Structures are given as structure tokens and as C-alpha cells.
Amino acid sequence: MGQESQTSDKPSGRPDPWDILSAAADAVVVFDRRGGQIWADDRFETLPFPVQDRARQWCSDLPPGGDIRTQLTGAGRCWEILVRPMDNEKICCLMLEVTESHAQRLRAEAIDAAGMLLLHFNRDEITDLTVADRLRLLEKRIVASVRRELKFDHFEIRLRSPGTNRLELVIAENMSPLRIGETISASKTGNGISGWVAATGQSYICGDVQNDPLYREGLTDARSSLTVPLIVHGSVIGVFNIESDTPEVFTESDQVLAERFAGYIASVLHLLDMLVVERVNTSQDFARSMTAELDQTVTDLQKVANEMSEHGDGETSDKLQGIAAEITRRVAACAAGPRSIIDAEHEIHSIQRDEVLAGMKVLIVDDEERVRTEVTLVLKQLGCDVSACSNGTEAFATLESVKAPTDFELVVSDIRLPDASGYEVFTKTRSVLPEVPVILMTGFGYDPDHTIVRASADGVQGVLLKPFRTSQFIEAIRNAIGERVAR
Fold it and tell me: Which residues have a Cβ under 8 Å from the Cβ of 461 and sit 6 or more positions away?
């Protein structure tokens, strides 16, 4: 028996590497880190070009380190892709043809992994970040996940604005913006597919936008779309809309996966909003607590002042009464929160005319009368020429009446107006006066429409968190004007 084994016709020695590759995968290709093809076997070369291109894009966008697995479909076939970095910045890509159900399971696993990454925030870390920085971090993760796992390149996320039915744009990738004044609301009629989905809480696949009565323009040259709701605790907080320039491209499987990922998106957006609301409530609670704590101190100070007056020291009594009144006024300003400038009444008379800012024409937009009044007084003390509007409609009409580039040299707007958002004021200003700096204001950093992150990405010159001090306001103005001068 041993003799026969030794004289067997079976080949001896190491197996042929090509046989190993043939057994390991249905196609093999090697890319460089930029997606350049270094080598491929004949089986890869026979795959449809869109499949080859998708594999190339995936490999060129790999995070550093580790083995990577994904799937892709094309020409009615499905592949599982196993990617492993090689030395010298090369990447080996093994492609195995799989069933559609297996590919769907792989996509679901990838969606869950990406979704858990969205939720994996260090709470202490993001608490220290500004609202804009938090959303930039989240936006980066969402864009990467949608492109890598869902395989979509054109999408947007809109959130329902608290107190209204408007759907405000939060994140957009390769989508056409709405025109100035245009809005989308959560409504079954007249507000496109996104409005219908937000109103009903049901997903919607549009196979051909040209023949769908609900569709409103989003992606330039779009031919089909998929829109799913963002739901938290049974309530629709927004929509996740995906579009394609190919008709009939979205399937029920895409819808299932998009809904799965939308659940993660909704959860993390809700988490970030709760952190901001917590900051608002904490600040207001602290202001109320401080007011209560100081009431007795102020009363005691006034009592001492009265005693001084009874003993004939009227001058000292008046000073103490003035100090008590100033403490009361400042505490009240802090407790008023975003409805005032903390030290405006005290500081305004000491503001000197600024020759750099003197004569500058400024437009103020805020629905809080006290804020408009205090901001206007500060600017006039600096020598500025001020116009004030109490809502978005007035602001738009004022900007539309502009006849010369020097009609306004600075715009300061609250981000929450009764009929518009600060982002719309910012965008309108950009369209009419592209060189004019804009400063946005918001109470305690509260930004439910995510105006700050959108405007920051588009180059807004400053953001002020109410309540702010007079010195902070003036510094923001000088910084904004300084940037314009530099440009």
C-alpha cells in the first residue's frame, strides 16, 4: 500500500498559485490605494464594467488597516467582495458570486455595523463640541456610510422643525438646493414626496420622476427616488431622501435597508438634539437658581443702604442702592437668557464711536423686540446706520429692495424667526450682496433647523450664542468686517 502511494500519478510539491486563486474566488484583482488597477485575472476582465468600477471605487476608499468585506450587484448578479491590504500600498480584492439573499444579508450586516458607528460617540467629547462641530462630525460619518454601505451618491436628510411642519435641510450630498423662499412641509399634498413621507410616516419608491405626480425637483436630471421617514419613539422627525439619474433603480430591498439605516440616523440626530436641549435647560435653570439665591443678598444690601441714609450718609446710601439695582438688573438679564444682551444697559453709555465702523449700514433681523432694541443701540453708539426687521418676510423685502452693493455692509440675524430660518436670510444676503458678511445669533446654541452647520459650511462670518455680552457682540462685528477687508 505504501509503495503504491509513492508511485501514484498524483502531482507532488507545492500547488500552482493560479489554481489557488481559481479556487479562492470567482474573480481576483489587485488595485493600488488610488483605485488604479495593477493586475486582474481573465474572469474579472469579463465582468460588466459597472461592477468593475464599483469594486475599484470601494477599494480606493478603504479605511486604513484590517480586512474589509462588502457586496455589490450588477447585471442581475451579486458578489461578495473580500478586500485585504498587501504590502507596498497594494490591495487584493477577491470576488465571490453569491445568491441575492446572501448579498442582502451582507448588506444588512454592513448597515448595522455602520449604524452602530454613528451611535458610538464619546458623550464627554461631543458635549464640549459646538453644535456645528457635532453635526459636521455626524455628517461625515453619515455620508461615508451611505456611499459605502447603501451604495448611494445623491441623498439628503431633512428634519421637521419644532413648532412647524417645515422640513429643514440638514445634510445633502450632490443634491440641488431649493430656491430662496421655497420650503417643504410635512403634508400629503403640495410638498412633494418628502412632504408626503413626513406626513404619513410611510416610505415611497418613485420609479420615474417624470410620471409621478408627487415628485418635486431635487437632483438635477433625477429619474427615480427612494424616500423613507426618520422615526423616533413613533414620531416622524424628518426624512431620508435618495435620488438617482437612472429610472426604476430602487427596489424593495433598497427600501428595507434604507429604513434600517434611517433608524440609526434618527437615533443619533435625536441624541445630539437632546444634548443641546439639556444645555438650554441647564442654563435656564442655573439663571433662575442664581436669581433666587441673590434675592436675599440684594434685599440685605438695600437694607444697609437705608440704614446709611437714616444716619445721614446719603452719598454712600445712594451708591449701595445703585449697586443693588445693578445686581438685580444683571441677574434679570441672565435669567432672560436669549431675549437680551446681558450687560447692554450698563455698557451702552460707555461705548465710543468707532471710526472704522462709523457710517456702516447694518441690517438686524430678530423677532425679539428687546434684542432688536439693544443691538440697535449698541450699533448706533458705534456710529452705524441701522435698519431692523422683526421677521423673515420683512428681511427678504428689504434685501430685494437693495439697489447698490453699499446699501448694507453687514447683516445680523437670529436663526429662529417666525416665518423663516437664519439660513434663508444668510442665503438671500449671499444672492443679493455676495460680499456682505453675515452674523447669526441663537439662544444657548439651540439650533433645531441646523442652520449653523449649513451656514458655516457656506462661509458665514460669525455665530453668537445668546445671551451674549456687549463686548462679544462688538468683537464679532469687528471680526466679520475684518474678514471682508482681508478678502
Answer: 437, 438, 439, 479, 480, 483, 484
d(CA 399, CA 376): 18
Angle, to 10 degrees, between the axis of helix 252-310 and the axis of helix 314-336? 170
For the structural domain made of 344-486, what CATH number should be given? 3.40.50.2300
Check if the beta carbon of residue 206 is closer than 8 Å to that of residue 218: no
pLDDT at 278: 43
pLDDT at 97: 84
Measured between alpha carbons, how far is 65 from 148 in angstroms, rounded to an integer?
Answer: 16
pLDDT at residue 140 greater than cutoff 90: no
Dist. CA 79–CA 462, nearest whole Å: 49
User: Cα-flanking dihedrals φ and ψ of residue 173, to 5°?
Assistant: -130, 110
Scan for cell 458610538, then name that residue. Answer: 120
Residue 27 has pLDDT above 60, yes or no: yes
Report how far residue 415's alpha carbon sits from residue 402's, in angstroms, rounded to the nearest whole number: 22
Q: Is the pLDDT of residue 4 over 60?
A: no
Instruction: Establish how many alpha carbons lie within 13 A of residue 201's alpha carbon, considering only the half-sphere containing its beta carbon.
Output: 8
Going from N- to C-terminal start, the domains of the chain cover 16-98, 116-278, 279-339, 344-486
Q: To the nearest whole number, what is the mean pLDDT of the chain? A: 78
At 133 the pLDDT is 65
Domains 116-278 and 344-486 fall in the same CATH topology: no
Q: Give 116-278's CATH code, choosing from 3.30.1360.20, 3.30.460.40, 3.40.50.1820, 3.30.450.40.
A: 3.30.450.40
pTM of the model: 0.52
Q: Judging by beta carbons within 10 Å of its beta carbon (0-12, 13-18, 19+), is residue 304 exposed, middle or buried?
A: middle
Nearest residue to 233 (alpha-carbon basis) of 187, 186, 191, 273: 273
Superfamily in which the 16-98 domain is placed by CATH: PAS domain (3.30.450.20)
- 420 closest CA partner among 181, 158, 171, 157: 181
* C-alpha cell recorded at residue 187: 403634508
Measured N-to-C along each axis, helices 100-119 and 252-310 cross at an angle, to the nearest 10 degrees, of 10
pLDDT tens sequence across 165-182: 888 777 778 777 666 557
> pLDDT of 413-461, one tens digit each?
988 788 888 888 988 998 899 889 999 887 645 555 556 666 666 667 7
